[in-house]
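REVIEWER CHECKLIST
Item 1: Sequence provided? yes
Item 2: Single chain? yes
Item 3: Sequence as submitted:
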Amino acid sequence: MAGRSFSQDIGAFVEKTGLSLNLVLRKLAFDAFAGLLMRSPVDTGRFRASWRIGINRVDLSVEPERADSLNIRSRFALQSAPAPSGGLIQTAKFGDTIHLSNNLPYAQALEHGHSKQAPQGVLGRTFDQIILDFARTVASVVKA
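Item 4: Structure as written out by the authors:
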């Protein structure tokens, strides 16, 4: 193997295993994003809606604060509304860095257990699950 580049070695691995590394990366990122949404505690829905996706950069935006005068139907819709679409994940390629972030001032407090809905946090639990499911995720994207 002397003289071969890392990318050639990866290419050979992909060829041998039948894996699409782009698909593995995207599946892992999508599962992580979905896990963050599902584990996010909900009061007004702003925290859940403030999860952001960035490819090779961190998206520092947050969901704008809503007026407290929302009626019950609007508040329920906000609580169940997903954060921005995971569609950006579909543009990621192996070698890219996918950043999943929540930039609300209280996000760190929620991660450290300051919510009865998520006493063990959101990020840590989600990524622990991603690691546990890694083999199954890889197996799900093996080419037929």
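Item 5: Key structural point noted by reviewer: The longest strand covers residues 51-55.
Item 6: Recommendation: ____
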